[in-house]
Amino acid sequence: MYKFGWWSTGRDRDALNLFNAVYDACKQGVIPGGFSYCFISRARGESPESDMLIKRVDECGIPVVTLSARDFEPELRSTDREEWRNRYHHQVLKSISGFEAEAVVLAGYMWVVSPEVCSAFPIINLHPAEPDGPAGTWQEVIWQLLEQRAGHTGVMMHLVTPELDKGPPVSFCTFPIRGGTWDVLWDEFEEELSELGSVDAIREKYGEKLPLFAVIRQEGVKRELPLIVQTLRALASGKFFIKDGHLFDSSGDELSGPWDLTAEIEEQISE
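The structure assignment produced for this chain is given below.
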């Protein structure tokens, strides 16, 4: 059975929802695999949110490994972040050395991993944009989409590299943000832009409450959990695998690009 490691900071309720969605998919046989262990970058008792996740993982009988990033050499973290990152993650690797996992999923893990971690095993992470789309947080991604007057966007899982959000995409789905009711939202946006003069001014006035911004985020979130589940399902069932930073199909032939799961995701969210 395919085994994967699960890394999280457990900073909010979304971290718990993400774990539950993947755990349920494993229990139901949707993903023919399961958790080897769960690593949390907070100690027990460090925060109510991470404790909630730890408690749930314990209840599921999955081994939990914790190492507080906050409490690990804080002086070094403030003076030399790169050296701190290397030392912290070296210790993380030692802590999980007894567990076997074919890949690691970063699920709300809030720290940039070290080069040593990137070379230790395949690591995949969720990014709220399609391949070749904007980099940054989901907020930054959406504002860039508005700046670009984009016609579509998406969500992807990508391989993690030492360079943030620059790893090659593994899987993705896309969706349009033009046409139908979208056009009404874009018309409202253009009116505000004409009045206020810049996207920055709109951001200052409305923030995440801008209707177009909010609906783009809503549609992206709707696809995030299904994409993670479908990606792990494809990996665990052998549809493709990751080796040395490249993707291969079940016959061992290298794929020319990431796995497009748009059809599967759209079918799932329409049920």
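Interim note for the steering committee: The beta strands are 2-8, 33-40, 64-66, 103-106, 123-127, 152-159, 169-176, 240-243, 246-249, 259-260. The mean pLDDT is 93.
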